[in-house]
Amino acid sequence: xxxxxxPINILGIETSCDETAAAVVADGRTIKxxxxxxxxxxxxxxxxxxPELASRAHIEKIYPVIKEAMEQADVAKDDIDAIAIxxxxxxxxxxVVGVTAAKTLSFTWNKPLIAINHLHAHLQSAMLSExxxxxxxxxLIVSGGHTCLYxxxxxLEPKLLGTTIDDAAGEAFxxxxxxxxxxxxxxxxxxxxxxxxxxxxxxxxRSMLGRDSLDFSFSGIKTAVLYYCRGQxxxxxxxxxxxxxxxxxxxxxxxxxxxxxxxxxKTKRAAKKNKAKTILLGGGVAANNKLxxxxxxxxxxxxxxxxxxxxxxxxxxxxxxxxASLAYYKFRAGLFADLTLEPNATG
Length: 347
Ligand code: KG4
Ligand code: ZN
Description:
The protein is an alpha/beta fold.
């Protein structure tokens, strides 16, 4: 709220990977609009995001997407208090499009500019759930590029507890889907195939990286699926072509169970270490029902039970609501960027 009791409206912009998104959010919670132009169709035939194609699509879509977000919210530039942009981490050629658009609007509309970390924004999307946050809290962010555990005290200072040392969980879903010849993006395809599969059919490895580690490693399980399909010497043909739907479903379900198992156990470990009362869950892989229900079971069976705050499904994958929502706290703290802001691929 501003001094005159008017809400603070922030225009958020997101272009870090393959979604061009803009949203207007008031006071960090009231979603006035959310527009997402997905590039899935564009990258589908390559089985992954092609940076140059992503960049070009962002350039084409950025203006219409922002315009639509303003129209849907029924606001004019005078109603906007700040422009927020996710400038890190992500693909440089994709980030630069949003950063340039945000800086241009900040300059021409004479509005403050707010720089947002994309992963912290994913974390903020869990705050959009209806639950009340009780501290201490631990957050699990699982996306296509990252798998991170945070110690969460305030929206502005999440402290990294652990991260992936190789593939991210979403990346493993995408790569295993490609081995199984399931459609891109892999996460939703694996989840769908797994519905009819037996999660105990194949015992894929669960990499825990030692007793106390809060880091993750998913490259081993991806390789295990590859060996399962191609034979240990990798000389055999990919057996996937001759497998029936049930066999594919069993691999998908067993793989999903192993990844979820590791994510839940590591989160439990972090929660125990930090004496967390609340668990936050966000990022693209947080859309996965098996992960959502398994974390809920872990929270319910804890003594005393923990509260789980999960990002609403439509705000799990990349969007600009999470960017505009987090920017509200930076606005209140007076944490502004200037026109020298650059994209930062590694964050
Ligand atoms: O957060 P996000 O949209 O983009 C990044 O910041 O990376 O996450 C995309 C990732 C992809 O790897 C996608 O396969 C995965 O999230 N994903 C899922 C599901 N929906 C999306 N993984 C598992 N189950 C899902 N239902
Ligand atoms: Zn993301």
